[in-house]
């Protein structure tokens, strides 16, 4: 290392969201550790000015960042940790969901779930099983054990709350719910797919550039 060369440590985030049309700066996509005299200048460096044709997803990789930093401060050494790229999602103003649409989706999910449970119970002859269980407990046969069925229905609801570890906005503990885990895995796979597609576009654009006289 040359004497007087500044060393900059970078750690890129995986996925960030920025307002639509905003310039992407280093402070938005990375954690930076550098000399306090130059760190503010580094954080304000513009890495990308999103255009309409870029869409709402912008990929910025470490090579682009290094190139930008060396343009501003030539005599630096850059060390990076973690991911070699960051996916920037440009988001517009958040709109409140329409009440009619919310109710329609809620009713669809409610009745769809109810029909699924009812069809499952019909397939496994749950009515006959419940009648037999009540008969074994009480010694009397009741073709319509409403008390047992009511308790069973409440138990299904309580079991779902415990399983998903969530009731409206309240969580029982800090463990992620199964739905949160599935959403995380979905987002990871989606990000990886988008990154792969963005790299393909970059390579195609670079190839066209080399062919142009």
Automatic annotation (TrEMBL):
Kindly give the InterPro entries that the UniProt entry links to this protein: SporV_AA, SporV_AA_N_sf
Indicate the transmembrane segments per the record.
Answer: 98-118, 150-168
Q: Please report the stretch or stretches of sequence annotated as the Stage V sporulation protein AA domain.
A: 6-92
This protein's record includes keyword Translocase: no
Q: Which Pfam families does the entry link to?
A: SporV_AA
Its keywords, alphabetically, are: Membrane, Transmembrane, Transmembrane helix
- In Swiss-Prot or TrEMBL terms, this protein is called Stage V sporulation protein AA
What organism is the protein native to?
Answer: Paenibacillus woosongensis
According to the entry, what is the taxonomic lineage of the organism? Answer: Bacteria, Bacillati, Bacillota, Bacilli, Bacillales
């Amino acid at each position: 290392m040359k004497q007087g060369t500044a060393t900059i440590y970078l750690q890129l985030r995986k996925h960030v969201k920025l307002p639509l049309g905003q310039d992407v700066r280093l402070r938005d996509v990375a954690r930076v550790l550098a000399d306090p005299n130059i760190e503010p200048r580094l954080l304000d460096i513009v890495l990308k000015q999103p255009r309409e044709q870029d869409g709402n997803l912008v990929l910025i990789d470490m090579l682009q960042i290094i190139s930008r930093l060396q343009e501003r401060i030539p005599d630096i050494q850059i060390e990076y940790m973690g991911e070699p790229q960051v996916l920037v999602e440009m988001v517009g103003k958040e709109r409140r969901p329409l009440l009619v649409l919310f109710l329609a989706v809620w009713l669809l999910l409610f009745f769809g779930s109810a029909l699924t449970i009812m069809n499952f119970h019909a397939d496994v002859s749950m009515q006959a099983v419940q009648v037999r269980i009540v008969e074994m407990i009480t010694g009397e046969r009741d073709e319509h054990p409403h008390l047992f069925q009511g308790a069973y229905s409440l138990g299904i609801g309580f079991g779902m709350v415990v399983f998903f570890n969530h009731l409206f906005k309240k969580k029982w503990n800090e463990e992620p719910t199964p739905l949160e885990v599935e959403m995380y895995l979905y987002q990871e796979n989606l990000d990886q797919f988008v990154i792969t597609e963005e790299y393909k576009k970059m390579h195609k654009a670079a190839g066209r550039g080399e062919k142009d006289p």
